[in-house]
């Protein structure tokens, strides 16, 4: 079974996400969109059409989305089969969040590394 197939997103806390996004837009040329982040499109041997994306997004400093982790960042990793990977991680003794979310954006699950960092696992919708 494949585990991680790429980075789906990089999320980090910011005191002023809008101002920080504007700085990244101006000085580094990141195309920050109205929703506050940017989507980098890419291609790979498994995805020659380049339909995948990596999202870059600052979150408000007081976001609860990373909880219970106290880290100022969270990385989202792309996976092929979220439910199979979560089951395997549980068998391996990893701390896995019981919650799994599904939406038009795909399936999302979470695991914690040994230092308590929350890691988001994302199975994109078919074709993405």
Would you give an account of this structure?
The chain has one domain (4-123): Roll (2,3-Dihydroxybiphenyl 1,2-Dioxygenase, domain 1). It starts with a strand and ends in a 5-residue tail after the last strand. It contains two helices and seven strands, in the order βαβββαβββ. It is of the alpha/beta class. 19% of the residues are buried. The radius of gyration is 15 Å and the shape is globular. It is 17% helix and 48% strand. The protein has helices spanning 17-28, 82-91; strands at 4-14, 38-44, 47-60, 73-79, 95-103, 106-112, 118-123. The model has no long low-confidence stretch (mean pLDDT 91). The protein has a seven-stranded mixed beta sheet with strand order 2-3-1-4-7-6-5. It comes from Rubrivivax rivuli. InterPro entries: Anthracycline_SecMetBiosynth, Glyas_Bleomycin-R_OHBP_Dase, Glyoxalase_6.
Break the fold down into its secondary structure elements and pairings.
Blueprint: E1 4-14, H1 17-28, E2 38-44, E3 47-60, E4 73-79, H2 82-91, E5 95-103, E6 106-112, E7 118-123
Parallel strand pairs: 1-3, 4-7
Antiparallel strand pairs: 1-4, 2-3, 5-6, 6-7
Primary descriptors:
128 residues; alpha/beta; 2,3-Dihydroxybiphenyl 1,2-Dioxygenase, domain 1; seven-stranded mixed sheet; 2 helices; 7 strands; 48% strand; globular
């Amino acid at each position: 079974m494949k585990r991680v197939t790429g980075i789906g997103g990089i999320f980090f806390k910011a005191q002023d996400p809008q101002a920080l996004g504007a700085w990244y837009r101006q000085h580094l040329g990141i195309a920050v969109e109205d929703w506050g982040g940017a989507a980098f499109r890419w291609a790979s041997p498994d995805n020659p059409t380049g339909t995948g994306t990596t999202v870059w997004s600052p979150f408000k400093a007081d976001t609860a989305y990373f909880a219970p982790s106290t880290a100022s960042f969270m990385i989202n990793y792309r996976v092929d089969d979220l439910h199979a990977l979560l089951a395997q991680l549980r068998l391996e003794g990893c701390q896995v969040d019981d919650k799994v979310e599904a939406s038009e954006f795909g399936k999302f699950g979470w695991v914690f590394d040994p230092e308590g960092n929350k890691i988001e696992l994302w199975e994109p919708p078919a074709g993405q």
